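>> received
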Amino acid sequence: MKRLSFRLSQAVAGGRAAKAAPGSREVVLERLLRKRAAAYQAGLGDQEQMLRDQIRWSLPIDRDPAGEHESPDPPQS
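>> returned
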């Protein structure tokens, strides 16, 4: 029995190792969007909401879109 469980764990580990890490944030976002669309089409509301949260988390945040940084008031003389 131990030999079978060892072989099974080796097969599972090998399957995990076969997946390559995504090359960029865009690849991750594309995969999430496709999965969300599939969940929507299948009527899986809970999974779709979970994927929406993951998509929102994976998006870059631009805290200052205008490129204007607030600087403190200049010293008064």
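>> Residues 42 and 48 are 10 Å apart (CA to CA).
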